Amino acid sequence: MTKKRLEKLHEALEAEKKALLEVEASLAGPGGLGVPMGEATGELSVYDNHFADYGSEMYERSKDLGLLENTRQQIAEIEEAQNAIAEGHYGYCHNCGQSIPESRLMALPRTLLCVQCKREQEDRDEDQRPVEEDEIFFAGEDAWGLGRDILPNEEFTH
Ligand SMILES: [Zn+2]
């Protein structure tokens, strides 16, 4: 792999990490999961606390928790990939040591496994991690929208 391409991938990882950290901050920070339930939606909803609202808030929080978990997982993967770049073994499968095709790296810069090992890992982890990496990737994209949806008091401004 050329140095230039490696730099490009490093930049892509950096940009993706930055975006994910913002998602994480908006999910875990004020207005998100960082505040106890009830306080998160502001005084109005506590005052006007219908049972149904409570239920949907519970649902929103559990959805956000899953998202937060996914986001942190992706950040960890990116950091691992960046370490691999620094140590010079980026682009080689973590498991079998074979070189990973550049097209795969371009499509998913944080990948550490070749397609075959990734599949085997997914088969093994099926119970714990039923979501395929591509779906996780898109969940990350969704997080952009969700991140905006849970801005503090947004629901009272329209
Ligand atoms: Zn492999």
Short description:
Helix content is 64%, strand content 0%.
Distance separating the two termini: 51 Å
- Structural Rg: 19 Å
Let me know the number of strands.
0
Element string (H = helix, E = strand): HHHHHH
Please state the overall shape, judged from the principal axes of the Cα atoms: elongated
Strand content: under 5%
User: Could you name the CATH class?
Assistant: Mainly Alpha
Q: Count the helices. How many?
A: 6
Number of domains: 1
Q: What is the CATH homologous superfamily assignment?
A: DksA, coiled-coil domain
Q: Report the structural category.
A: mainly alpha
Main pleated-sheet profile: none
What name does the CATH topology carry? Four Helix Bundle (Hemerythrin (Met), subunit A)
Q: Uncertain runs with pLDDT below 50, 5 residues or more? A: 134-151
CATH-level-2 architecture: Up-down Bundle
Bound molecule types: zinc ion
Into which percent range does the helicity of residues fall?
55-70%
The pLDDT mean sits at 78
Folded structure, characterized:
- It is built from six helices and no strands.
- The chain is an all-alpha fold.
- It has one domain: Up-down Bundle (Four Helix Bundle (Hemerythrin (Met), subunit A)), CATH 1.20.120.
- Helix 1 (3-28) packs antiparallel against helix 3 (51-87), helix 1 crosses helix 6 (133-149) and helix 3 crosses helix 6 (133-149).
- The protein starts with a helix and ends in a 9-residue tail after the last helix.
- The model is unreliable at 134-151 (pLDDT under 50).
- The structure holds zinc ion.
